[in-house]
Amino acid sequence: MPTFKTIPCTESGISECSKAIKNGAVVVFPTDTVYGIGCDPANEAGVKRIFEIKGRDEKKPLPLLVHDISIARKLVSLGNNGELLAKEFWPGALTIVAPLIAGSGLSPTMLAGSNSVALRVPAGRCINLLLSKCRQLVGTSANISGKKSPVSAQEVVDSGLDGFQILLDGGRVEKGIESTIVDATSGRVVREGAIKSPEIYRVIGSAAR
């Protein structure tokens, strides 16, 4: 039997979930792309639990979800490329890798020794309501590393993923494909996902490569 509690993505459900996160819980939630798993990014125990749940290599940093660009600017130096891309695609399915600003307060385990972090402002009602209360969350796909990313709460349940406290059920997600990842410093597309590379290079004025 699952050890987690499933709650609906309602105002009361969001409130319960956000309180649990502030108390150290690891939760699964819908984003605009796929279902994610996360916790308070300053909580070392929660971050370590996510690595364990996913079977993720601890040398691979975890990405971050933030409520808005003003929070992102306090954490990282977006630079010209990052600012252009954020203006065009946030909120949405674009993750930007950018250098950290000192004093970010993020978990060292989450960063895995990196001096940058991959972050995005997601679209989607449920995740935005959650972030309006939490402001920032670890946000990686809710799957065993290497397995298919779930696009519904039922797929999370069926996958056998366990070890988290709450599953926030927001129905089937809109896109069903992971975000595109871009390195803000180089302008390079690290992973093509929901947003195609030519769209990225159009915005930053770089030839497709």
What is the overall pLDDT average? 94
Number of domains: 1
- Assigned CATH superfamily: DHBP synthase
Q: Helicity range of the residues?
A: 25-40%
Can you describe what's shown?
- α1 (11-22) packs across α6.
- The chain has 209 residues and is α/β, with parallel strands linked by helices.
- It is built from 8 helices and 11 strands.
- β2 and β3 form a beta hairpin.
- The longest helix is centred in the N-terminal third of the chain and has 12 residues, at 11-22.
- The strands form 2 sheets. A 6-stranded mixed sheet has the order 7-4-6-5-10-11. The protein has a 5-stranded mixed sheet with strand order 1-9-2-3-8.
- The chain has one domain (5-204): Alpha-Beta Complex (DHBP synthase), CATH 3.90.870.10.
- The chain has helices at residues 11-22, 44-54, 69-75, 79-89, 108-111, 125-134, 153-159, 197-204; strands spanning 5-8, 27-30, 35-38, 64-66, 94-99, 116-120, 136-138, 140-141, 166-169, 180-183, 189-191.
